[in-house]
Amino acid sequence: MDKSASRQLETLPPLSLYIHIPWCVKKCPYCDFNSHAAPEQLPEEAYIDALIRDINTELPQIWGRRLSSIFIGGGTPSLFSAKAYDRLLSHIHAVLPGISDMEITLEANPGTFEQEKFSDYRQLGINRLSIGIQSFNDQYLSSLGRIHSGLEARRAIDMVHKAGFENFNLDLMYALPGQSTTDVLSDLKTALDCQPTHLSQYQLTIEPNTYFHAHTPKRLPENDLIWEMQDSSQSLLTKYGFEQYEVSAYAQPNKQSRHNMNYWEFGDYLGIGAGAHAKISQANNNRVFRTSKLKQPKAYMQHAGNDSVINQQHDISVDQMDFEFMLNALRLKSGFTPELYAAHTGQALSSVQSKLDLAASKGLLEITDQLIRPTQQGFLFLNDLQMIFLND
């Protein structure tokens, strides 16, 4: 059967751009992202050359479309100079138009902060930062292998304010080895006092292919304690005016990450850089496909600009679409509209109606004519809810 036979993409979803910078000062023991310890001489100019070749090669896939957001992630993107990003962003703006109020986010880690560098970032049009704090407690920072102290984290945030950034996210982790609920709330209170507009709070999970997986830390909190940490954190965040809008994401009113919202609403995104992923829809042939680039920085730089830079590519078939969409959209507390499903998948909602009804019968999903969203129970047991949409 033709994969596009039951799909009709009458409109295309919003398009974002993800740029991956693969180097860190050192690899953290819990990290399973495509990151590599930086060499003594960072190949900044050669890597920017490769990114420019990469995006030029991708342009025919997205002719006529405008970017809604740019996200520069890693790794530690703040290792690169403002001069490097000036060159890259100037090229992107020249070949790929963006909407007038485009969100441009750069990830940064304390320990790589310099006041002049961040003021220059702001002058380039980078208007949002995502800062990897993880904790303000030196004991836990050490156990996580972070290169900064709690004091350096607070100084870095002061630099963010002085550089003129009004919109920024702080990343925190909880359920750390030996951590108490009091410790979690202390970290959270310190973060909130720094006046971020967005906060991401992640539970430490032991992922394959990490140092922690091979050497699991002792004294990880029990499930009851983790639940107490999460419940107490949400109460404090609500008190400070932050609303949970996704599993690990909290924001002040109208300060949700536009880039991540596009992921969760099953929008399109172009990915450039070592190990970068993409999801692209094409209306002319009703095709939706995913790609990923070579992960090793040296190999990526060698092949960028050629088809050989593609590590994997596959179409999302009609049969796979329900699960792919729900895996993302059901992470949002607000859920999605029937119109969004049809517009971003090209398929009628009736194609998944039986699974929607099954999820509703289990008390995991609330369905109205205007909205489909997880119930409180569905949000707590999100994996169970999502698996209903996985084809046998």
Describe the structure.
- The structure is a single chain.
- With 392 residues, the chain is α/β, with parallel strands linked by helices.
- The chain folds into 2 domains: 15-261, tm_1862 like domain (pyruvate-formate lyase- activating enzyme, Alpha-Beta Horseshoe), CATH 3.80.30.20; 318-392, Orthogonal Bundle (Arc Repressor Mutant, subunit A).
- Helices cover 37% and strands 22% of the residues.
- It contains 15 helices and 16 strands.
- The strands form 4 sheets. A 9-stranded mixed sheet has the order 9-10-8-7-6-5-4-1-11, with helices on both faces. Strands 12-13-14 form a 3-stranded antiparallel sheet, with no helix packed on it. It has a two-stranded parallel sheet with strand order 2-3.
- β5, α3 and β6 (128-134) form a beta-alpha-beta unit.
- α1 packs parallel to α2 (82-95) and α6 runs parallel beside α8 (223-239).
- It is globular and about 55 Å long.
Structural key phrases:
392 residues; alpha/beta; pyruvate-formate lyase- activating enzyme; Arc Repressor Mutant, subunit A; 9-stranded mixed beta sheet; 3-stranded antiparallel beta sheet; 15 helices
Indicate the topology.
Layout lengths: L14 E7 L1 E2 L11 E2 L6 H15 L8 E8 L7 H14 L2 E11 L6 H9 L4 E7 L3 H6 L6 H13 L5 E7 L6 H13 L4 E6 L7 H4 L8 H17 L3 E4 L2 E3 L6 H7 L3 E6 L3 E6 L4 E7 L3 H7 L6 E6 L2 H12 L8 H8 L7 H9 L3 E3 L4 E3 L1 H5 L1 H6 L5
Parallel strand pairs: 1-4, 1-11, 2-3, 4-5, 5-6, 6-7, 7-8
Antiparallel strand pairs: 8-10, 9-10, 12-13, 13-14, 15-16
Helix pairs in contact: 1-2, 1-10, 6-8
